[in-house]
């Protein structure tokens, strides 16, 4: 984790600036924006990496069970023995999300999980993330640039500009023309379409 410029970053009282990575990894799973494994891995191999904070490279039957459940949850059973470089972008992203689910932490941070995905795959990924939050009781934080995707799938939104938090709150509080026009430095209008707020720019 990058150290804070000022103050402290805590997770349930645990100061992330002074806590070992191994300890943090048992509470917080992080999927970075760019993921390029140096080795040629199968989907199953990748998902097993999610168990490393618990198994330290010596997976147990319990670890295998967590991996199997994550594969099933993301619909990857038939792809489990395929190599990552043989998969589509959407399939590969599902494999990485399965890895962080297998880590079995209360909190998950996903950095730009929709990068390079077409609309169909992006929507499916957001649906799966939402399902995981509800079904598995996870708190999932997603970094997105697409405000409409955030408004459609997230319970709360934290708006940042130039590295600072501008506002945070429920979707209805964030999806205003005034706020979004200021954040994006471009005129934005907000409309209620088919049951949801949509930004037009």
UniProtKB/TrEMBL annotation:
It is found in: Cell membrane. Residues 1-187 form the ABC transporter domain. Pfam families: ABC_tran. Its EC number is 3.6.3.34. GO terms for cellular component: plasma membrane. GO terms for biological process: monoatomic ion transport. The keyword Cytoplasm does not apply. GO terms for molecular function: ATP binding; ATP hydrolysis activity. Its main location: membrane. It is an enzyme of class 3 (hydrolase). SUPFAM superfamilies: P-loop containing nucleoside triphosphate hydrolases. It is a peripheral membrane protein. Keywords: ATP-binding, Cell membrane, Hydrolase, Ion transport, Membrane, Nucleotide-binding, Plasmid, Transport. It comes from the Bacteria. InterPro entries: ABC_transporter-like_ATP-bd, ABC_transporter-like_CS, P-loop_NTPase, Siderophore_ABC-ATPase. This is Iron(3+)-hydroxamate import ATP-binding protein FhuC. The gene is fhuC.
């Amino acid at each position: 984790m990058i150290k804070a410029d000022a103050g402290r970053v805590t997770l349930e009282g645990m100061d992330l600036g002074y806590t070992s990575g191994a300890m943090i990894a048992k509470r917080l799973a992080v999927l970075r924006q760019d993921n390029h494994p140096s080795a040629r891995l199968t989907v199953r191999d990748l998902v097993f990496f999610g168990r490393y904070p618990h198994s330290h490279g010596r997976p147990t039957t319990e670890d295998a069970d967590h991996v199997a459940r994550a594969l099933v949850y993301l619909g990857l059973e038939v792809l489990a023995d395929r190599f990552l470089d043989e998969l589509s972008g959407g399939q590969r992203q599902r494999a990485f999300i399965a890895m962080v689910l297998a880590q079995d932490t209360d909190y998950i941070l996903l950095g730009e999980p929709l990068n390079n995905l077409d609309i169909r795959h992006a929507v499916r990924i957001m649906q799966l993330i939402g399902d995981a939050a509800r079904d598995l009781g996870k708190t999932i934080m997603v970094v997105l640039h697409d405000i409409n995707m955030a408004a459609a799938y997230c319970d709360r939104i934290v708006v940042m500009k130039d590295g600072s938090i501008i506002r945070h709150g429920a979707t209805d509080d964030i999806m205003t023309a005034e706020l979004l026009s200021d954040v994006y430095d471009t005129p934005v209008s907000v409309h209620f379409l088919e049951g949801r707020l949509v930004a037009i720019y």
